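Record pair follows.
FIRST:
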Amino acid sequence: MVHGLCYLCLMDRIEKIKEFLETNPNDNFLCHALALEYIKAGDDVSARELFEKILAASPDYVGSYYHLAKLLEKMEEKKLAIEWYEKGMVEAKKAGDNHSYNELLGAYEDLVY
């Protein structure tokens, strides 16, 4: 959890992103950015809900797999984290995104082995 002035800045960023989402509610970039801000604010449940919403609607939005799985690790949901890493690797391969694939693979291996 952040404190003082930094907390106010964080809340301001969250409110600004929410305002943008009012006109573009299905913008994956904005939803992803908001989820990351929620993590910084310590609101893991809201972050998880957003990442899951993104990936349910757009399974090809590869960047959210890593962050969702990392969040699930933090929430001590190892089995579910592994599943999301695996799904992310499949999507990264489909997209030809080797950087994301390797990032997901590394995190997956760190968790599994």
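SECOND:
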Amino acid sequence: MIFFTQLIYIIEGQEQVFDQFENMAIPAILKYNGRLLLRVRPTENTFIENNIDKPYEIHLVEFETQQDFDNFIQDEERKKFLHLKDQSIKASILIQGNKL
């Protein structure tokens, strides 16, 4: 298994556009041997300490292999909606890891 944690920063006012993209992208994960393990939208009082900007959402996803993840990224149906991602996401940080 390979794990990805993503910190997502939204352009203010584009939350609904982001949700439209996620409604399409998240189900596509399953097509490529992946699972969304966590989707967290933290609130101001859930941060104990931070030295970076606070993300709008945090995702934890697993895929069986790197190739499964690469196939997900190249999914043609997902690519049709990337304009929604570009319109709504200011920045994101993707962290790759393995279970220890």
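COMMENT: The two ends are 11 Å apart (CA to CA).
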